Amino acid sequence: MRWETDVKLAEHTRYGIGGPAPKFGRPETRDVLATVLRETQPGMLRVLGWGANVLVSDAGVSEPVVVLDGDFMHLEHGDSWIETGAAAGLPTLVGEARRSAFEGWSFLEAVPGSVGGGLRMNAGSTDTGLWDRVTWAEAMTPEGETVRLTPSEAQPGYRTVAVSDAWVFLGARFEATPGNSTEIEKRHLRRRRMKVETQVYDLPSCGSTWKNPGAPWGSAWRLVERVGMRGARRGGAQITERHANFIANLGDACAADVWWLMAETRRRIHEEVGVDLEPEIRLWGFSEDELAAIGGEG
């Protein structure tokens, strides 16, 4: 595998924001990935999928970054299962399920990202996550060993999974129940239409910025609106009018703009409501103080 140096991560994230990585590579096979992992200090390698849920600091990151490619793009299915590599897209997975008339996949309509990122974040809706469809998933340890995990072992939760960040997801097999193709097509279309009408797809963003805090507060966007932050702008970033849990890049935003909006929103909600929101997005390259201000982890 050839390493590139000083690669701007803004070019590899949906936000279009972020400084450089010192090294950037695209492993295409498990053997190559195993070599990279064994040659890298545990916890010192970052894996990027589609960059759909990541905000990279303006300073970039100090660790090497890899994007899985090649063999990790595979997707195939049988009568009652779908199997994909971690680099396959969630839209590709959902499209295959819809065309094959498999039940129970409309919850992922219009969700961007890779399968690997979806496994790491347990992507999905408020009620249903990707791990609800997993039969097994495979991950590679820092020692280059492949481990097969069941949902009970991975312990998925709301936008989280109990699998070490040092492990790299390789792919998964998903359950697929045949159903009525006409009804499935209708459900997918309704879900997609609802997402497109209520969320932001015409500007770069990371989707939902905050995890929903749960009862009695419900959706995070309601709290953002309650403290007067809907439509707030900082530099080239704005909390969108259409959906108050989205922060969009209006064209020239930097990570510091997005961070400021997050910090101010969280401060107001803490002071006025007494709730400490948790970021739904991943944050790369920020200092401990910066992360503390927005309740995030590196």
Descriptors:
about 300 residues; Uridine Diphospho-n-acetylenolpyruvylglucosamine Reductase, domain 3; globular; Uridine Diphospho-n-acetylenolpyruvylglucosamine Reductase, domain 2; 3 domains; Uridine Diphospho-n-acetylenolpyruvylglucosamine Reductase, domain 1; four-stranded mixed β-sheet; alpha+beta
Can you describe what's shown?
With 298 residues, the protein is α+β, with helices and mostly antiparallel strands. The chain has three domains: 4-66, 2-Layer Sandwich (Uridine Diphospho-n-acetylenolpyruvylglucosamine Reductase, domain 2), CATH 3.30.43; 73-184, Uridine Diphospho-n-acetylenolpyruvylglucosamine Reductase, domain 3 (2-Layer Sandwich); 201-279 and 287-294, Alpha-Beta Complex (Uridine Diphospho-n-acetylenolpyruvylglucosamine Reductase, domain 1). The chain has helices at residues 30-38, 90-99, 115-121, 151-154, 181-198, 220-226, 255-272, 288-294; strands at 4-8, 20-25, 46-47, 54-56, 65-66, 75-77, 81-85, 102-103, 134-140, 146-149, 168-175, 177-178, 205-208, 233-234, 237-239, 246-249, 282-284. The strands form five sheets. A five-stranded antiparallel beta sheet has the order 6-7-11-9-10. Strands 1-2-5-3 form a four-stranded mixed beta sheet, with no helix packed on it. Strands 13-16-15-14 form a four-stranded antiparallel beta sheet. The two termini are 27 Å apart.
